[in-house]
Design brief:
This protein is of the alpha+beta class. The chain has a single domain, classed as outer membrane lipoprotein receptor (LolB), chain A. It has eight helices and 13 strands. The strands form two sheets. An eleven-stranded antiparallel sheet has the order 8-7-6-5-4-3-13-12-11-10-9. The chain has a two-stranded antiparallel sheet with strand order 1-2. The radius of gyration is 19 Å and the shape is globular. The N and C termini lie close together (10 Å). The N terminus is likely disordered.
C-alpha cells in the first residue's frame, strides 16, 4: 500500500501544479510591453484581442468572464526522466462544487483515471498498483474523501477540499495579483487563433503566503523551504475572450528532485461538462 499511496499522492499534487499554471503569478505593476501592446488587436474568439499591461487588469478580465466555469484541458509534465500526459474536463459552481474527470498516462506506472464528484475524489488505479493493493479486477476504483479512514483518504483527504481552488480560474487569478510580475507581452497566433502571450516571473515565497487553503499552504511552505529556487518563469496565452488557452509553468527543484515544466492547454470554455461517479459496485474497500 505504501507504493500505491505515494503514487496517488504525487498525482494529486501534479494536478494542483497543472492548474497552478495560472495561479502563482503577478503583482499589479507596470509591464514591459515588447510587441504591439495597444488594445487595437485583431479579433479572436468573440471579442477584441487586448493586451493588459499589468497583472491587476489581466486578472480582473479573466476572473470576471462568465465562460470561465468549465473547459476541456490537456496537460504534459516533465521533470528529469519522469513524464506524464493527461486529458480531461472540469466544471465549477453549483451546489456540489467542482466536478472533474482526468485520464493520466504515466510511463512509469501506467494509466490512471480520476473523477471528482460532490467533493469526493475517485481514482481508477493502474492494474499493477491495483494488484499490489489486493483490489479485485472488477472493482478498479477507490474512493477518497476528506473524512475517510482508509489509508488513501488519510493521505490525500486533506487535499480533496482544495481541488476547487486548483480548477477555479477566478480563484487562481486572485493569485495573479499577489506573487509576481508581467515581464513582457506579444500578440501572436496560436492554433489559428489570435492571442496575447504573457511572460511572467513568479516569486515563490509570495505565492506560498497567498494560498488560501491551509493544507496546500503547509505543503507549499515545506516545498519552498527545501528549494533553492526563489523565482520561476511562466508563460500564458490568453484569447480575445480573455480566457487562457495555454499555460507553461516551471516547477522548482526540491529536495534533490530536478526542476520541471507543466504545459496545460484549455479548449471549449463555457461548454457543458458531465461527470458521474463510478458505480458503487465498481469501488473497492481498501484495508485499514
Amino acid at each position: 500500500m505504501r507504493k500505491t499511496g505515494l503514487a496517488a499522492a504525487g498525482l494529486v499534487l501534479v494536478m494542483g501544479l497543472a492548474a497552478c499554471g495560472t495561479r502563482e503569478a503577478g503583482t499589479p505593476v507596470a509591464a514591459t510591453d515588447a510587441n504591439n501592446s495597444s488594445n487595437d488587436g485583431g479579433a479572436g474568439g468573440n471579442g477584441t484581442l487586448k493586451v493588459f499591461g499589468n497583472a491587476l487588469d489581466l486578472a480582473g478580465a479573466v476572473k470576471n468572464n462568465n465562460k470561465a466555469t468549465s473547459a476541456k484541458m490537456t496537460m504534459e509534465m516533465g521533470a528529469g526522466a519522469e513524464s506524464m500526459k493527461a486529458n480531461g474536463a472540469f466544471k465549477m459552481g453549483g451546489a456540489d462544487g467542482t466536478a472533474m474527470q482526468m485520464t493520466m498516462d504515466m510511463p512509469q506506472i501506467g494509466s490512471m483515471e480520476m473523477r471528482v464528484v460532490s467533493k469526493v475524489l475517485y481514482m481508477k488505479l493502474p492494474s499493477s498498483l491495483a494488484g499490489q493493493a489486493g483490489m479485485p479486477a472488477d472493482k478498479p476504483w477507490v474512493k477518497i474523501s476528506a473524512d475517510g479512514t482508509d489509508p488513501l483518504s488519510k493521505t490525500l483527504g486533506p487535499l480533496v477540499s482544495s481541488l476547487d481552488q486548483n480548477f477555479d480560474i477566478s480563484k487562481q487569478m486572485e493569485q495573479v495579483k499577489a506573487a509576481g510580475t508581467i515581464d513582457k507581452t506579444a500578440k501572436e497566433t496560436l492554433d489559428g487563433e489570435q492571442v496575447t502571450h504573457y511572460w511572467l516571473t513568479i516569486d515563490l515565497q509570495k505565492a506560498v503566503q497567498n494560498l488560501p487553503d491551509p493544507e496546500m499552504r503547509k505543503l507549499a511552505e515545506q516545498g519552498a523551504a527545501a528549494s533553492s529556487t526563489k523565482t520561476i518563469k511562466e508563460e500564458m496565452w490568453v484569447n480575445a475572450d480573455n480566457l487562457p488557452v495555454k499555460v507553461v509553468a516551471g516547477t522548482p527543484a526540491i529536495a534533490g528532485q530536478p526542476a520541471g515544466t507543466v504545459t496545460v492547454r484549455y479548449t471549449d470554455w463555457g461548454k457543458p461538462v458531465d461527470v458521474e461517479a463510478p458505480s458503487p459496485d465498481q469501488i473497492s474497500e481498501l484495508p485499514h
